[in-house]
Q: What sequence folds into this?
């Protein structure tokens, strides 16, 4: 996943810079913190391969892959080929050889390109393309007028009903709209119109003034524009979906948008409930000194630090801490989060559910990695979401 590789490199580099602080004083600490903060906030355009296709077997019905923390997990997944130009849908594990470092998986379909030995990139979207090409669902390409200009979106009508119930689906940091495709069949069957917008710094759309992510603190305005599109188009009820940073964006919409009262409910999958917790988690993983991690957060949110970090408006990480701000929430929400999420720790989701049992319905998964709960148990995910929206 793009967001993962970006923060991994950030952690390693910041750790290397931060390691000089004992010998080079606060200058090294400041440099390490600035670098770490920039990497957290910088969109990653290059998406490197992370998996090796070792052998195509059984006439293309099975494939042997290098064993990685991602490829060994049960479930349905996708595989990007040729730098993202090709795509394959993979089924469950059929064999694994720990000693050899390999896994074998079913091949459910080749969407684009040719499956052959070589580099590839594992992904949790499972589907690729558009709602029509991936799922056979009718859809329309629409343009949403936003703060920064026109933002493309997919509009998927419901299978039945009057079309007045709308779901706005918000993908995560460094992800693409395809991340949301997994949810569309459930919404389509249940009679929901689905709107899948892009937001600033997505590929091919207007960038923010600084070209950096603001962790939801500016992106929320683009999702507000999506709601503003839905209401005159007939929406009488709006549900917001958010994956990963998309969850952080949704929470800022609920807090700051004048249209928040149009939202009836929220569904969050592997959400960032507290960016400070996520940043500290990655700092610990990569042995970034705690002082460097704390300083990076301070720099993001301060006037003096934003120039060093390269942001147009301060990124106040404290505003993203919804465990601390739990009493301010007023919208019912379904939280889906895996205890084995390696990228966004489940702790803040658990705590938010404990603090607001009146609002939060919490569904905890096991085994699934970041935002891959659907992949490991499709029937459960679809049942939980359909029941909540019903």
A:
């Amino acid at each position: 996943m793009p967001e993962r590789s970006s923060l991994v490199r950030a952690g390693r580099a910041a750790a290397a810079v931060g390691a000089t602080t004992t010998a080079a004083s606060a200058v090294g600490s400041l440099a390490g913190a600035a670098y770490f903060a920039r990497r957290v906030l910088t969109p990653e355009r290059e998406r490197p391969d992370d998996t090796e296709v070792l052998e195509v077997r059984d006439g293309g019905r099975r494939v042997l892959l290098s064993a990685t923390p991602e490829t060994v997990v049960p479930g349905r997944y996708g595989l990007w080929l040729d730098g993202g130009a090709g795509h394959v849908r993979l089924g469950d594990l059929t064999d694994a050889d720990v000693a050899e470092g390999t896994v074998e998986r079913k091949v459910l379909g080749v969407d684009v390109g040719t499956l052959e030995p070589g580099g590839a990139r594992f992904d949790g979207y499972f589907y690729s393309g558009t709602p029509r090409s991936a799922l056979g669902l009718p859809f329309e390409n629409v343009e949403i007028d936003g703060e920064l200009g026109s933002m493309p979106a997919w509009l998927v009508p419901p299978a039945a009903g009057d079309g007045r119930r709308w779901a706005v689906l918000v993908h995560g940091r460094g992800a693409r709209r395809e991340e949301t495709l997994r949810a569309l069949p459930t919404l389509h069957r249940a009679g929901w119109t689905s709107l899948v917008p892009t937001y600033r710094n997505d590929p091919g759309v207007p960038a923010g003034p600084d070209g950096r992510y603001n962790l939801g603190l500016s992106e929320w305005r683009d999702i507000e524009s999506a709601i503003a599109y839905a209401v005159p188009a007939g929406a009488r009820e709006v549900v917001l979906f958010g994956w990963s940073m998309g969850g952080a964006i949704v929470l800022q919409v609920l807090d700051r948008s004048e249209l928040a009262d149009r939202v009836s409910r929220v569904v969050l999958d592997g959400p960032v409930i507290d960016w400070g917790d996520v940043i500290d988690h990655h700092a610990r993983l990569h042995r970034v000194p705690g002082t460097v991690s704390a300083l990076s957060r301070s720099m993001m949110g301060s006037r003096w630090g934003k120039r060093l970090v390269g942001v147009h408006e301060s990124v106040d990480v404290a505003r993203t801490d919804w465990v601390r701000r739990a009493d301010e929430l007023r919208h019912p929400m379904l939280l889906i989060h895996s205890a084995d999420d390696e990228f966004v720790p489940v702790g803040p989701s658990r705590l938010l559910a404990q603090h607001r049992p009146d609002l939060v319905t919490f569904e905890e998964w096991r085994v699934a990695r970041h935002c891959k709960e659907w992949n490991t148990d499709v029937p459960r995910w679809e049942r939980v979401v359909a029941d909540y929206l019903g």
Q: What stands out?
A: The chain has a mean pLDDT of 93.
